[in-house]
Amino acid sequence: MYNPGKNLLENRVILVTGAGDGIGKQAAITFAEFGAELILLGRKQEKLESVYDMISKMDTPKPCIVPFDLELCEEIAYSRLATKIQEDYGRLDGLLHNAAILGPRVPIENYAYKDWEAVMQVNINSVFLLTKFLLALLKKSDDGRLIFTNSGVGQKPRAYWGAYSISKYALNGLAKLVADELENTSNVVVTSVNPGATRTKMRNAAYPGENPDSVKPATNLMPLYLYLAGPDSRNEHNSFFSSEDDFSK
Ligand code: NAP
Asked: For residues 94 and 80, what is the distance between their CA atoms, to the nearest angstrom?
């Protein structure tokens, strides 16, 4: 069992996408509990404010809120975000690509192109844009972490899951490609994580007939997420983790 020290993430500035709900919310709160300074990026201001309020009550640096729609923002907004982080923090020690949408589960011949575009925009295009513009800030860290969130359906295609499944395949490729590019040129450690079945809004939408209590809560993932965000994963560059892994041997 991984037993992280209380100050594991002290002096680390970490951006979490989709920080207002689900796994991203739990990751943001947990990273803050272990001392990180959080940049909370998400679509809905109220959800981010609620996470902000929870973190503000802790004895940890105040987080910052970034309301940002990964589907609708233009490229220039991503560039401006990087400039703002440069001005406010001067670097980034962690970027958790977590936000995603499920999209419809229908046969390809019935898959509406507007749904395909939306899923691809949130799940892969926005991840490319954030990575492109924030990499220079991660490289300024002594020990940066770039974490991609994958899924079982990004390893084996799932019939009827359309763009979600394919976007996760593309994400796997992007993670490996970036890892390759950074191999000998930076201190940034690139990893991917498949959280597996986790009790969230997305899981509930995908499996409406399932009893949510039969699925693990996001808190169970946090030892793994802390490991990936903190200094102990220094030698894990280009590795893929799943929630079942005994990663802390
Ligand atoms: P979730 O509960 O649906 O949360 C997703 C988060 O992403 C929400 O905060 C959501 O904001 C945000 N988001 C969605 N569209 C956005 C946009 N256009 N701009 C900004 N933020 C946006 O999902 P989750 O289950 O926590 O999933 C987190 C990650 O784990 C995803 O990458 C998912 O693919 C992966 N995953 C989950 C499971 C599982 O069983 N839960 C299994 C395998 C992989 P709103 O709250 O405003 O919608």
From this structure: 18
225: its two tokens: 């997420």
Nearest to 76 by CA among 65, 87, 84: 84
The residues lining ligand 1, judged by C-beta closer than 6 Å to any ligand atom, are 18, 20-24, 42-44, 47, 69-71, 98-101, 122, 149, 151, 194-198, 200-203
- Could you give the dihedral angle defined by the CA atoms of residues 84, 86, 92 and 96, in that order, rounded to the nearest 10 degrees? 30
CA of 165 to the centre of ligand 1 (A): 14
Cα separation, 131 vs 203, in Å, equals: 26
CATH entry 3.40.630.30 includes domain 13-242: no
Give the tens place of pLDDT for each residue, 48-58: 999 999 999 99
Name the pTM for this structure: 0.98
Cβ proximity of 194 and 242 under 8 Å: yes
Torsion of CA 9, 177, 97, 183, to 10 degrees: 10
Burial of 107 (0-12, 13-18, 19+ CB in 10 A): exposed
- pLDDT tens-digit readout, 11-63: 999 999 999 999 999 999 999 999 999 999 999 999 999 999 999 999 999 99
174-193 confidence digits (pLDDT tens): 999 999 999 999 999 999 99
